[in-house]
């Protein structure tokens, strides 16, 4: 497991690593008496897209928030590139800088222009000079098709455009893994496509992603693996064809039935 | 709801116990650091004060225990007047301010005079220094020799406080009313509520909750400014301290009055903080659970 050469510094250029990029073991998280995650385990290999599905309240968002250290876990281990990031001795800010998170409601900063939203973290966290940060930001905005909106304020954009800016913002930190929390749930149906298309394109660049979604069509298209969350655990996992096409567990079948009803 | 079965049998793993132990040791260390730095800072401040060349003189004329004891009853008597003035003024201020804020939200040409009056009132009384209002009201109003105009310094002083503070508080209320999202009014109106009903039952309850902390802040300011009525001749805590200072040729009564005012406002401030922290009270503004406690 602990391969001697592969400790953090060697960013995964070699796809054949023994340790998964993200490794969750025995994760428990409760809010008061409400146990949301209970002994949950999950592996995400580098360059793979893992899609989390499950009823609302099944813990998809909580799992992502725990991985991004936005919640303190009650128990369990979360390892990123072989390092236990739940260790309170670690600098949590440095860990979060290695993880990109995109939220359901975009969470852009309304008082900053698109360009400043995207360059805020590079300038403050990575100490990138403004000119360089803006050049890189424009390149990323180009990639998400919004370079012409760099001077706009978030509320001048459509929901889909705002979410693409949020994705650009997360990308600019060159995250080891991207966490996407129901990123299309707040969007009008005709705007969902542009965001999903962008995610498909990101997958083709080899970005590692963990995606919580209700879009089963999207799950089929991009998922290397689908995990069905139930009762605080990964109840069933497999390829999209297996889990969505031929689920083995009764709970999974019931969930999919209700979704299509 | 798909809740995980409540595992009452859950015991923290070895790993988690180790993490918790580390956090506890950090907490203990933080407490120790806080204690040491507080003691050190206090020691430096006290030493600096006591070792200054004029300290014996200052100690004798500002911190005389006997004078403090002797002047306390008179100053306390004065403070009781401050408290009464403050309590009555506070109630009137809230009523007048709310009326002003509501007058400024009225729409339609009929209400133009009311709107203009409220706006003008706020402009004037926010701009005038409180001490000028006190002097003008205190000496000007009785000078009119109109029937029924009170001549008591306390009543006139209270009136000046109400005039000035209601202008400030009206703006706080207005800010609160405007901070309620227009979608709330839209929702209320879509249910058939009138403009006034929407204001009374939907907007105001949310607005008032939001402005309670700044309102209490104004109340603290009022408790101190109530001392200014002494310039009209009312014997409040400040004036009483002045009299006692003259009697004993010693400044200690001022310190006594100062300590009493602080003792009066600290509970108010703590109450404000506690209220602001109470989750749920601020509605959607209180943010995501746990979002404030990120390490």
From TrEMBL, chain A:
Give me the Gene Ontology terms describing cellular component.
plasma membrane
Gene3D superfamilies in alphabetical order: P-loop containing nucleotide triphosphate hydrolases (3.40.50.300)
Q: Where is the ABC transporter domain?
A: 22-256
Compartments annotated for it: namely:
Cell membrane
Give the membrane topology: Peripheral membrane protein
CDD domains reported for this sequence: ABC_HisP_GlnQ
Main subcellular location of this protein, as a coarse class: membrane
Keyword field contains Cell membrane: yes
Any one GO molecular-function label of the UniProt entry? ATP hydrolysis activity
Instruction: Kindly give the InterPro entries that the UniProt entry links to this protein.
Output: AAA+_ATPase, ABC_ATPase_HisP-typ, ABC_transporter-like_ATP-bd, ABC_transporter-like_CS, MetN_ABC_transporter-like, P-loop_NTPase
Which Pfam families does its entry note? ABC_tran
The record, for PROSITE patterns, names: ABC_TRANSPORTER_1, ABC_TRANSPORTER_2
Q: Does the keyword Ion transport apply?
A: no
Q: What keywords is this UniProt entry annotated with?
A: Amino-acid transport, ATP-binding, Cell membrane, Membrane, Nucleotide-binding, Transport
So what family is this one in?
Answer: Belongs to the ABC transporter superfamily.
Q: What is this protein called?
A: Glutamine ABC transporter ATP-binding protein
Question: What is the species listed in this Swiss-Prot or TrEMBL entry?
Answer: Cellulomonas biazotea
TrEMBL record, chain B:
* Keyword Cell wall biogenesis/degradation (UniProt): no
Q: Where is this region: Disordered?
A: 1-22
Chain ranges passing through the membrane: 32-50, 79-103, 124-143, 149-170
Sorted alphabetically, the Gene Ontology cellular component annotations on this record are: ATP-binding cassette (ABC) transporter complex
What region holds the ABC transmembrane type-1 domain? 79-272
Q: What's one GO BP annotation on this UniProt entry? A: amino acid transport
Q: Which Pfam families match?
A: BPD_transp_1 (PF00528)
Q: Principal localization?
A: membrane
Q: What is an example of a GO molecular function annotated in this UniProt entry?
A: transmembrane transporter activity
Compartments, as annotated in UniProt = Cell membrane
Q: Keyword Transferase on this protein?
A: no
Keywords, in A-Z order? Amino-acid transport, Cell membrane, Membrane, Transmembrane, Transmembrane helix, Transport
Record-stated family: Belongs to the binding-protein-dependent transport system permease family. HisMQ subfamily.
Q: What is this protein called?
A: ABC transmembrane type-1 domain-containing protein
